[in-house]
Amino acid sequence: MNTESQVVSRSVTQTLRGMPASDGAGVKLTRVIGQPRLPDLDPFLMLDEFGTDKAEDYIAGFPDHPHRGFETVTYMLDGRMRHKDNHGNEGVLVPGAVQWMTAGRGIVHSEMPEQTEGKMRGFQLWLNLPARDKMAEPNYQEFGPDKLPVVERAGVNVKVIAGQVDGTVGPVRQPATDPTYLDLRIDAGAAFTLPLPVGHSAFIYVYEGSAAVGTGRDAAVIEAQELAVLGDGSEVRLEGRAARTRAILVAGRPLREPVARYGPFVMNTREEIMQAFSDYQTGKF
Ligand code: FE2
């Protein structure tokens, strides 16, 4: 028997709930990755869930702020958000759209609600860049809901933002971390199994319903608003335990580089952080 072809189902190594946080000019959100119990999950630096139907929780938005050295991935479920940067890029993210922004050497942008009432819901993920790409030109990969392919299986609906499912490839390209980013909708009792590259960091965040993650006696029940960190293996399996379960499944190749981080700057060394401050203050972004 060829051991390399053995399937190893990933089991849950850590379960945690997000912490209430406030960011930007006072937007209320839930910080899931990037909190004391899970400061990061290489290459993932942060995961925020925002979800509210109270305008006062989001109306202040995120006025002008910088980023350098990593990527921000905004995935909208409900609501509309306008982004505008200092390189002349501007657009509105609508429900179901994703914006994969490579900050690279630096951008200054605002992310403001394009609505004064109604629901605002979605995720922002921060994904690290390797040293060689931290000072690359800023870049956007932005896809509306009609540009994100959907794969249907029995009782399962998968939107493929990055990575692939049954030969359907998501539109986002990022060779450095080779990410997988799926939005899953699973009926009660339906199961979803997917090969994932061995060695990639991976997590599942359930945002509606409940799912059993893993196989057999190893399976862990993950409730809504809980994150499951997955151990290594060659595939992942989850099963819906509520009438409608929704979850994101995210994976990526770890960079295994030193991380020097200060607010919106994520570099490899303290000196590079100092340089980022200096470049930002002297208008070099
Ligand atoms: Fe931002």
Cα-to-Cα separation, first versus last residue: 55 Å
Q: Provide the CATH topology.
A: Jelly Rolls
Strand tally: 26
CATH class, please?
Mainly Beta
How many separate domains?
1
Helix residue percentage:
under 10%
Determine the mean pLDDT: 96
Low-confidence stretches: none
The major β-sheet equals: 7 strands, antiparallel
Small molecules bound = fe (ii) ion
Give me the CATH architecture, please.
Answer: Sandwich
Mind telling me the CATH superfamily name? Jelly Rolls
Shape annotation = globular
Oligomeric organization of the protein chains: single chain
Order of helices and strands: EEEEEEEEEEEEEEEEEEEEEEEEEEH
Beta-strand content? over 45%
- Rg is 19 Å
Alpha-beta content class: mainly beta
Could you describe the 3D structure shown?
There is one protein chain. The protein is mostly beta strands. The protein has a single domain (12-281), classed as Jelly Rolls, CATH 2.60.120.10. Helix content is 4%, strand content 52%. The chain has 1 helix and 26 strands. The strands form 6 sheets. Strands 1-22-19-24-17-14-13 form a 7-stranded antiparallel β-sheet, with no helix packed on it. Strands 2-3-4-11-6-9-12 form a 7-stranded antiparallel β-sheet, with no helix packed on it. Strands 5-10-7-8 form a 4-stranded antiparallel β-sheet, with no helix packed on it. A hairpin with a 2-residue loop joins strand 13 (150-153) and strand 14 (156-162). The protein is globular and about 55 Å long. The mean pLDDT is 96. It binds fe (ii) ion. Residues 62, 65, 67, 72, 109, 111 line the site of fe (ii) ion. The site of fe (ii) ion (FE2) has 6 residues, from strand 5 and strand 10.
